């Protein structure tokens, strides 16, 4: 190779090397530049996507779409720009963002929509959430006892920011839980109407027709809003209000809330729902739909609406407020409709887009409403029968807080009477023939079917001769009785003492309960029952029909009755003792209206047609035009707003109350109620007090008759060996006297062993002979020495007895005194005979009688004598000294004649058939009325 | 043995009985909103995540822009140096009529990553080498003339 070539080669090589070095230097720095630029672009991309939010970015036109305008280079290279989201260089970043996104929403995506679907399905079955095909047109059957659907479907929701669009049901709480506020734009107002209509139809179709009432007010139109619902107006289920009269609707709702507060929300309940508890809804819901025009209401309407909203939910008032700007201080859910037809909702928050359910088919809505109205009418027109008052299963209610039972029907809806702490006592008024007995039967039947005898006891007293309560005690034809009845008093008539006795019994029971409560450191029966769950503390309802008899006269009975009534009326409420007083005419009963402490406690007023003064007249004259078989039930002391008018079903015909009584009796008869029948004579041999008598007591007990008390106990005198223990019967009728003497001698006979005691029966008037002989036979049959003497033997008997007593007193006889009873019939008939003096001793038979009366009792010789008048008795006694007669029973003598024999209360006595006034100066402070026994003489 | 546990009586257990604390049942509305809250929480979580990442990115973007400015400067310098060298080389090779000139080389980005200075130095050295290869001949020729 030449030198020149050599050089050329070296230059070429050096140049090539130089070329490479330049390319490398340029390439290295260019690459570095480009790498940085690429990284920067990726960062910018990620910043943009994340800054916007991936959910929005993937829908963003600038990021997702390719621009149609190409640059010159792009055209030349035929390589149009790609959309950033689909550029390969950003794929990795995009994948990472998407991964984060899926991770964030993982829990929601996997569980959220499914859980919501399941939740709505479980709490909103039936019309509350199902598609309309399954329910529209079929009236509902729920009465609230199975609870209220907690959610009501309005549409479908999607979480727009989530990676997957999974739809789920959107539902809102309604009835009792939250109001609904809907705001729309002019474009979406139609959707608001649809939403309201759909929801109303769901609610109306869920419940029994009548349980939901709808009120519509639309500021813009009188008619036309919710046209599909119009058929409901004919059943009074829809009320459309005048656009200019919002105040009327608000007043109506406020008044309703007030009434619910005073009538339904008692005993500490805060909501209608808690009152209804597990049972049927007692108070219908009222849904008020208010359509506004996005302008604020007048200030006063605004405030009233806020008040209704605040207090409405607890009282069953539900508001649907459409396009009225208002803030509400109670639970409310808001649905905001956008112009594009979608919505957001406070149930789902801002991340969920709600698509409302489509409108129900136009033609089906009016038809469905017509079906609901028809069903409602059918229910309403159906006559409620006695059977409809009764619950499905008897004896399931608890009376701890009170008793409540339907007594009649208003438009097919039951109307209840409630007795509890806030409505303690009831006053019933209705002239004869107005259906008072029928009402009482309906009330008692309804109560007894609900509450078991351990929850409710009845004391039933009827003064009238009509005998309305006799059926509840075992009778000859029907052996059954009402298991709840503890006492049934019929034909009480003039035995007003029995009414007092009942009140006394209730007063004592009240005290017993108060003591028990005090021991448990509580004051009310409800709390006592909670503290003493094992104890038996039934509520007591005492019904006194024709109670005006109690206050019939100005005497001690009225005074005692008034005092006791006041006591029980005032304090019975907290001890679960409730009075139900009824009368033909309560207007003039001074003992009742004279004391505000009494009548103010009778907050439950029940007026039957034409009843006077029971309701607060003259403002409340509802009873005047009341049709037959109807009653006004008023729990607010008779003021007009408290009126509830209802029809009382027939409860006295065969197959009603009698059938129920028989059913309940078969179920658990319990103990038969005590019966006091004023027209019946107590049978001595059936009296527990008589049957309990046994020999062995040194001071035998004499039973004179039956006292008028709740227990039906006997009037007793103890024959101790003390002066004065003789008994006088005063009266002109042999039957009364014989009954007392017979009962007394027979009871003495039971307390002596055979032949231990001697009975001498002196029959001094002829008409007493059968009684004397009957008694002698009875005593002899018991093994006693009983002899009957006539008027011819009386002098000898008395002289002999007096002589024996003298010898005992002077100590000349050493035989111990044995019991000797002198039963003298018509002592005064022998007066003339006894006045004759013995020519030798100058002593008269009268002296002997006085000796026997004076010294007999301490020596076990007692006189049971009958005098036919007070003066005649006094004539037999030493002048002015009457204390040898320690006990007496007076029949047909005037009270003032008895003044010398007893306390001043005897003054009030006026004779009445088959009743005696009994006084024992050793035991009594005041006399008692007794009923003489039937000793079996007639038979 | 731990002195702390022996010095003090152990705390008596607070609940002796088997009683179970009643958890009040949630209403359906509360339950519904609870489930919806899963989505709301997810959205919040995602936004938070994005915010944190965006802040990070913003910081990085700022520093990258800085670096880009630097590398752009550096690139300009390198290009200028290369152009200068190239111009001189062309000038020097002008006399070599036999030499067929070529256009300046395109940057070769496939070179292994090394500090730029090394490449710059390599370029300088290559130019030097080229110059040297040309210079010897001139010297000779000058000698021949003399």
TrEMBL record, chain A:
InterPro entries: FtsK/SpoIIIE/SftA (IPR050206), FtsK_dom (IPR002543), P-loop_NTPase (IPR027417). Transmembrane segments: none annotated. Keywords: ATP-binding, Cell cycle, Cell division, Nucleotide-binding. GO terms for biological process: cell division. It comes from the Bacteria. Residues 412-617 form the FtsK domain. PANTHER family: DNA TRANSLOCASE FTSK, SPORULATION PROTEIN RELATED. This is Cell division protein FtsK. The lineage of its organism: Bacteria, Bacillati, Actinomycetota, Actinomycetes, Pseudonocardiales.
Automatic annotation (TrEMBL), chain B:
It comes from the Bacteria. This is Uncharacterized protein. It comes from Lentzea flava.
